[in-house]
């Protein structure tokens, strides 16, 4: 049989592909990755109802430590692993495919819409003017992220900063405070109170909000709940 | 009424989102952008059949010169403009939204799966290790593309090179020949016969092919028809 690695898209039912919706219907067990990305309540309810008795919520541990068991299950019946976004953008799941290949278990990848492209496109900025993308963890050192913004800026490029979605998610104001701290420590002069940035909340979801303003304003704005992201523009082409 | 700007995804029916399929059903006229990306024969046949009498094939000229007429149509009834991939990644369509906003015509964006993320993810390379993405035109100077590959490589980053899809599309061998010419002219020593690269053909479509090899081998390989893309890896993390 087949292991399906299925991208759910931006986290709402709307953004599942026709292929994803179709293929998982035929699967015997459906594991839902609950740790690499965002799943809206609506989508969660829909999946629970639609796949009652077949759906298993999977933590990182389930998909790593019990990987062998899941893969052997896929040898016998159709198994789907559902992942928010594109199932391979976070790369966590590539090990799953490597292991499946070793065990000669056939697999199929179903791409999903990723925040990696949607956040870029929604701003109207040119995709070709983006440098390296980075992430900011909720409890971690922001200085590496800050260095990447600097590296891109020096070449005139925009930076997409994806914000941690775990445990309720890192917010735009929370992320900006962390970056202002990094500035205090590194003194690059890149993110300051008067720096222009773009705050992105719940891209592709109903409450989607895109706000272009200086940091001081972005930090006091109110937003719908995460997932949030930030863009620091490089040279603007208009 | 509303102007829907709808991403079709990777070019097959499979990769349309549930939302896209649903929303366009209610539209009075459906314009299909035939110039910014790839649409498979199957998808074209499906759209033609499904939206018989409503579907208009639109060239760049139609969507630029006749923009005003289309927008005024959207004021009265639901209009959809279908675009391969994500409708805003190519940025051509942002002017449409700017004009709609000026005329106070409401619009909705429906994201699609973009090659910009799918090509990155399918390789298993870390998205965070990609530098700036670039494109290579079928009839154009490859030296700018070559400079971007160099710029990324100097920072240890991977480069995604999207290949022109117009007029049958630029192939992997065709693109590599152009880049070898750029090397002859610029002498950066980056793309040579023994350089490792990744050839990507028809990502997300049934005949999908990913081939990792040195340029000499990639150039003589046979591929399914375009769309094609290339990745030049920077530092590999395994």
Give structural notes.
The first copy, chain A, is α/β, with parallel strands linked by helices and 238 residues long. The first copy, chain A, folds into two domains: 3-110, Tetrapyrrole methylase, N-terminal domain (Cobalt-precorrin-4 Transmethylase, domain 1), CATH 3.40.1010.10; 115-232, Methyltransferase, Cobalt-precorrin-4 Transmethylase, Domain 2. Chain A has helices at 18-25, 41-50, 60-65, 67-76, 94-102, 115-122, 143-154, 172-186, 215-218; strands at residues 3-7, 29-33, 55-58, 79-83, 107-110, 134-136, 159-163, 196-201, 209-214, 228-232. In chain A, a hairpin with a 7-residue loop joins strand 8 and strand 9. At the A-B interface, helix 1 and helix 6 of A face helix 1 and helix 6 of B.
């Amino acid at each position: 049989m087949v292991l399906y690695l299925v991208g759910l898209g931006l986290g709402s039912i709307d953004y599942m592909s026709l292929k994803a919706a179709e293929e998982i219907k035929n699967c015997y067990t459906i594991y839902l990755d609950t740790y690499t990305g965002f799943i809206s309540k609506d989508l969660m309810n829909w999946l629970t109802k639609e796949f009652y008795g077949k759906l298993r919520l999977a933590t990182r541990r389930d998909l790593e430590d019990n990987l062998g068991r899941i893969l052997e299950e896929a040898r016998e019946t159709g198994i789907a692993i559902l992942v928010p976004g594109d199932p391979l953008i976070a790369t966590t799941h590539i090990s799953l495919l490597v292991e499946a290949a070793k065990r000669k278990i056939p697999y199929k990848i179903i791409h999903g819409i990723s925040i990696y492209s949607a956040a870029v496109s929604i701003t109207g900025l040119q995709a070709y003017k983006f440098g390296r993308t980075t992430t900011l963890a909720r409890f971690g050192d922001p200085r590496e992220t800050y260095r990447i913004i600097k590296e891109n800026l020096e070449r005139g490029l925009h930076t997409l900063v994806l914000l941690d979605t775990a445990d309720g998610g890192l917010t735009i104001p929370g992320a900006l405070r962390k970056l202002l701290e990094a500035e205090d420590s590194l003194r690059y002069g890149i993110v300051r109170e008067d720096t222009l940035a773009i705050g992105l909340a719940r891209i592709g979801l109903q409450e989607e909000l895109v706000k272009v303003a200086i940091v001081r304003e972005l930090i006091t704005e109110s937003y719908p709940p995460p997932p949030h992201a930030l863009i620091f523009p490089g040279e603007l082409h208009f």
